[in-house]
Amino acid sequence: MQEKEKIKGPLGIIAGGGQLPCVVAEAAEARGLPLHIVGIRGEASPAIERFPHTWIKWGEFGKLFGALNDNACRDLVIIGGVTRPDPSNIRLDLGALKNLPFLLTLGKGGDDHVLSNVVRFFEKKGYRVHGAGDVVPELLVEEGVLGKIAPSAADRADIELAFTVVDALGRLDVGQAAVVIKGYVVAVEAAEGTDAMLDRCAALRVSGRTRGQGRTGVLVKMPKPGQEERVDLPTIGPETIKKASAAGLAGVAVAAGRVLMAERGATIEAANQNGLFLFGQDLTAESDR
Amino acid sequence: MQEKEKIKGPLGIIAGGGQLPCVVAEAAEARGLPLHIVGIRGEASPAIERFPHTWIKWGEFGKLFGALNDNACRDLVIIGGVTRPDPSNIRLDLGALKNLPFLLTLGKGGDDHVLSNVVRFFEKKGYRVHGAGDVVPELLVEEGVLGKIAPSAADRADIELAFTVVDALGRLDVGQAAVVIKGYVVAVEAAEGTDAMLDRCAALRVSGRTRGQGRTGVLVKMPKPGQEERVDLPTIGPETIKKASAAGLAGVAVAAGRVLMAERGATIEAANQNGLFLFGQDLTAESDR
């Protein structure tokens, strides 16, 4: 588990894509925390501009640290999706050259290796890196049934198997999600992402290669065991539910407290409207799964 | 490992799709073994008709056992792909009704569970079930470099990681294949099959979501640990090589002696022409991986 340090000073938010950076910023504002967003151009949404902000390009380390220092940000949240940068879009400034050994570590290994390096890099420079859930606990999916529908006993068995599969893969730094239908592991996520995996399940269902009539099976998401949970928690949203519905699944289950839900209301509403369950499973009891 | 019993009597070949049933029949003929093919209609190729044969529909157990008994076949090879049968195509005869408890086991669990049940079913009736590789050892991919190109040190590292991933998944009765590119697990096979997984890798490569310029990365195939290797060995062929090539991979590695290659010459030729390595890895040294 990540440490739960008290955040005192101005909060620096290093923003990739999606709505999460603004959600974190709003929560910080609501708590009276001063903040400054550093948005990565081409990744972060223009919506960050309603908060104090600085835009940087990939590789502009000097500008990044300048913005954090000018605003006295020692506490950081690094949040939002990033694509693997296109080399032609990277602009290396003097700060980048100073940090070249770090940059060279980024090209190797799986995602988790890269993200752990990112966190260590900021920590070595004296920053405190927090998870989005430390600033906005309500972003994390809580334990239990979230919508109107509860998983059946058969669903619970599929959930259990899917968590076992994702856990085994996660130990090898692969994926964060799997789909199980009636005891049959239909799909396992690697580089393609959850949405693409769900599209594939929908296609398999149409072609008759997965069993079961009506809504059956589950999508499960959880972080990799031992992964750097401060910068890369799995996320779900209304789109996840809609794609799970299109794949004919009965519902979605995630590791309670360890998966982010950016649009809480809309996500639960999508589950209810499509007749899917949405469930937060407490995995802490199973200690070191 | 499967037992290597000496095959004495007439050989019964229960034939699904593809070329393998005829390859096995030819090899049996070459060894002077009498044989009889029982072809599953809609699955087996009409090419089986050049051998002594009987056609059955899914579910015609009485006719199946009749054909085997009339031809004194106590040694069986069950070979060739089958689709999950369309219920409207199943014709249950009296033999099927007698074997109803067995039939009811087929709808549940993963592939391996189903296939183990199939083998046990025939064994209980006194048949000896052999792997295709027992009859035609040259069908199995041998150890070492098969074509003109050898895997590099970097390829060997990717191969090692991919075997580790497939092994971990296989223990959960999931998939038989994975793709690793420069230490990054790009795709893991579940219900979609190897061809669909390779198509996905090609798409990820085009979209720039996998790293590496030029040919990099490997496809690895191996049986699941503990799987019933007499009826369901993984297979590769020229099409596998072509799809691996389209995905930009450097080569294909399989568990030596435990993966079938139906079209040996054409498969090696496809590897050479496309500039891919084709490698049989000896996994026995790693005993109980």
Notes on the protein architecture:
The structure is a homodimer of 289-residue chains. With 289 residues, the first copy, chain A, is α/β, with parallel strands linked by helices. Chain A has 10 helices and 13 strands. Chain A folds into 2 domains: 11-136, 3-Layer(aba) Sandwich (Rossmann fold), CATH 3.40.50; 140-281, LpxI C-terminal catalytic domain (Cytidine Deaminase, domain 2), CATH 3.40.140. Helix content of chain A is 35%, strand content 18%. The first copy, chain A, has a 6-stranded mixed sheet. Chain A has a 5-stranded parallel sheet with strand order 3-2-1-4-5, with helices on both faces. Chain A has a two-stranded parallel ribbon with strand order 10-12. In chain A, helix 1 links the parallel strand 1 and strand 2. Chain A is globular, with a radius of gyration of 20 Å. The mean pLDDT of chain A is 87. The interface between A and B is large, with 37 and 36 residues.
Instruction: Using the alpha-carbon principal axes, give the shape of chain A.
Output: globular
Are there runs of chain A of 5+ residues with pLDDT below 50, and where? Answer: none
Strand order of the largest sheet of chain A: 6-13-11-9-7-8
What oligomeric assembly is this protein in?
homodimer
SSE topology string of chain A: EHEEHEHHHEHEHEEHEEHEEHE
What's the structural domain tally of chain A?
Answer: 2
Q: Roughly how many Å apart are the termini of chain A?
A: 13 Å
Annotated CATH architecture of the largest domain in chain A: 3-Layer(aba) Sandwich
Main sheet: strands, sense, barrel of chain A: 6 strands, mixed
Radius of gyration of chain A: 20 Å
Mean pLDDT of chain A: 87
Please give the most extensive interface between any two protein chains, plus how many residues each contributes: A-B, 37 and 36 residues
Report the helical percentage of chain A.
Answer: 25-40%
CATH class category name of the largest domain in chain A:
Alpha Beta
